[in-house]
Amino acid sequence: MAVTTASxxxxxxxxxxxxTGVLVREVVNFSSYWRSATFSSTVEPTIxxxxxxxxxxxxxxxxxxxxxxxxxxxxxxxxxVLFSSAFPAMFGTFxxxxxxxxxxxxxAAPVDTEELVSAEALxxxxxxxxxxxxxxxxxMVFGLDPSWGMLxxxxxxxxxxxxxxxxxxxxxxxxxxxxxxxxxVSAVLTPLFLVAxxxxxxxxxxxxxxxxxxxxxxxxxxxxxxxxxxxxxGWADLGSLAFLLAxxxxxxxxxxxAMTRKLID
Length: 265
Hints:
The protein is mainly α. It is built from 11 helices and 2 strands; from the N terminus they run H-H-E-E-H-H-H-H-H-H-H-H-H.
């Protein structure tokens, strides 16, 4: 069903009132389910931290110059970002346009698809920026020393979360049914999650696998968070930041294209 918007005569793209309106709606709606969303987005990464940190930590006490619990504690920030951005974006977007028809109602207002997608991604990224810090805070309880660089972790998680939110929206835009997400989770997200340098350094992998791992946005998120906690290393971190920004920008355009195609079918 085609959706006719009330914004045929737009003065400019990405108007602030339109984005603000969608964001306010999301905040109000979030107040009704924040407990379950917070639980699912923070408990599972924390379980990974505790299981790997103390399970493998009993066998591997250190990784390079890091205690293993600290190594995993900083790495699982990326896991929390992934769980609180890509997954809610995929399932939430699909449900909103396929079953609840929420987007039909929003697009009947002076809001276009670009503003809708941008606002959704900004909101999900903001949640990821908060939830991503939880494993690091748990690691502090078990001996991770606080540092000033930790103050940059929410921003790193936000930037990474924006890219993964747009990735999830893109997948939802092209998915024929909700069962299609199983392919993405099993064939894309799980391998990326495992070779992000979260639980073991990627230099233990074969050369070709290391090259592929460096194309993984989660890897760059892990590196930035780890260096934020233990000390930045200069140009390498700027490269990781540039990679995450490019990933977010690219996926943002893909998400807009996917949802525009879906909502005008």
